[in-house]
Amino acid sequence: MRGQLGQLMQQAQRMQEEMKRAQEELGRLEVTGSAGGGLVSVTMSGRHEVRRVSIDRKLFADDPEMAEDLVAAAVNDAVNKVAEASQRMLGGMAAGLNLPAGFKLPF
Questions:
Q1: Which domain of life is it from (predicted)?
Q2: CA–CA separation, 76 vs 25, rounded Å?
């Protein structure tokens, strides 16, 4: 019993270290969301910090409401890409825990 507990604790510590490395890697990640066929693009970090926004200036002059909608769509596209990367990087680690179906870790 004691050996199993020690083994479980080592496994948990390794997983914690892997999780920390994956979160650091996610923080360095940059994704670009776009909308309107590239008229608007948003570059975002893995921590959901918007780093750059690019908007075709002619679009603003011609149709500012559409430009606003495309900015929102580009941000949402970037957020979805960060979520996909997070799932790819962190989701596999949780698989080894044998958690109940639907259980989510806090990230």
A1: Bacteria
A2: 21
Tokens describing residue 11: 């496994």
Per the CB < 8 A criterion, the answer to whether 73 and 35 are in contact is yes
Number of structural domains found in the chain: 1
CATH of the domain at 65: 3.30.1310.10
Task: Report the distance separating Cα 27 and Cα 88, nearest Å.
Answer: 14
Tens of pLDDT, residue by residue over 40-87, are: 999 999 989 999 999 999 988 899 999 999 999 999 999 999 999 888
The one-letter amino acid code at 6 reads G
> Which of 15-19, 73-77, 97-101: highest mean pLDDT?
73-77
Categorise residue 44: left if φ over 0, alpha if ψ from -120 to 50, beta otherwise: beta
Buried b (16+ CB within 10 A) or exposed e, 46-67: beeeeeeeebbeebeeeeeeeb
Q: Is residue 45 part of a domain?
A: yes
